[in-house]
């Protein structure tokens, strides 16, 4: 009865707006989590380990749906688009507010339909991308993009 169990998780994200999409993401997460949490240390895009913050898990599902086709299931890029993880990605974002990454995503992505993401979903995806890049994440989740204003993206070498 994993579907029933999946639905019991839903009230935890009721505060967010796009319930329908989020239910789908959560179910995807529940279904995949048992089999393929991590491959070779890399997080697969369509789920996140069970200890990841709830928002990160939701973001993983939305990323798989809206971003992975171009940026890759593991955020390492494809012939269509650059990777969204690793040293090269972090080097270009180092020192910039996480809000800027959110803005880039909600304003210009997905490239095929810019502006189509709801703010809550863009926030989830941003949290997921930050999390994959080992940035500190507020475990209770971000509820507004403004909360990312002062959170500077750190380099992979940073000891902070
Ligand atoms: C149709 C293909 C496509 C899709 C789908 C897509 N992107 Fe992109 N994305 C690109 C391309 C191509 C670039 C690089 C050129 C540009 O910036 O426009 C890019 C650039 C980016 C960048 C900047 C990368 C950097 O190094 O600074 C981010 C961040 C990003 N995309 C996030 C996302 C997210 C998040 C999604 C899903 C909501 C998404 N993209 C969906 C094609 C895509």
Q: Could you characterize what this model shows?
A:
The protein has 160 residues and is mainly alpha-helical. It has one domain (2-148): Cytochrome Bc1 Complex, Chain D, domain 2, CATH 1.10.760.10. Helix content is 46%, strand content 2%. It is built from 7 helices and 2 strands, in the order ααββααααα. A two-stranded antiparallel sheet has the order 1-2. α1 packs across α2 (19-33), α2 crosses α3 (54-66) and α3 (54-66) crosses α7 (119-132). The longest helix is centred in the N-terminal third of the chain and has 15 residues, at 19-33. The relative contact order is 0.15. Mean pLDDT is 78; it is low at 1-41. It binds heme C. Residues 66-67, 69-71, 80-82, 84, 89, 92, 101, 104-105, 109-112, 117, 125 line the site of heme C.
